[in-house]
Write a structure and sequence with these properties.
Elements: E1 2-6, E2 11-15, H1 35-51, H2 62-81, H3 86-112, H4 118-141
Antiparallel strand pairs: 1-2
Helix pairs in contact: 1-2, 1-4, 2-3, 3-4
């Protein structure tokens, strides 16, 4: 079985993953179908914009750590989904949740250090918490 990606004019058949269609008993066909991954990607974009204004002296320290923690979230979701096992998927989702906790800590530290103002940090933290709630729901939905 394959699915079609591309525009109406240029469609490319792409072999599907092990799972045929998303349903209550199957994982999403592709990690890009997961709301958790989509929201995490939006969060990463927001984090990159926020950290662009950090002092240049922090580019290889806190800025880099924040960006790496943020990128780790959708990356682990994608990697876990690609393993085709609920057990392994859950393992990688838990890594994503750990990266969210790391990211939250680092954002709070950036605010304390004056690298970001409260409204900017609060908006990013709301996004982090939203992704966390979605991740927790996804973890809970996976059979043991």
């Amino acid at each position: 079985m394959s699915c079609i990606y591309g525009t109406a004019d240029n469609q490319y058949p792409v072999p599907s993953t092990k799972y045929q269609v998303p349903s209550e008993t199957h994982m999403a066909q592709h990690f890009k179908d997961l709301v958790a991954w989509q929201k995490a990607m939006d969060m990463v974009t927001e984090i990159y914009k926020l950290t662009d204004s950090f002092p240049k002296r922090e580019v290889y320290s806190l800025t880099d750590q924040i960006r790496r923690a943020a990128v780790s979230v959708p990356s682990n979701i994608a990697e876990g989904q690609a393993h085709y096992s609920h057990r392994e998927f859950r393992h990688f989702l838990r890594h994503s949740a750990g990266s969210l906790a790391e990211l939250e800590t680092q954002l709070l530290l950036a605010e304390r250090l004056g690298y970001a103002d409260h409204p900017s940090t609060e908006g990013s933290l709301q996004r982090v918490h939203e992704v966390g709630r979605i991740l927790n729901g996804l973890i809970a939905s996976l059979p043991e």
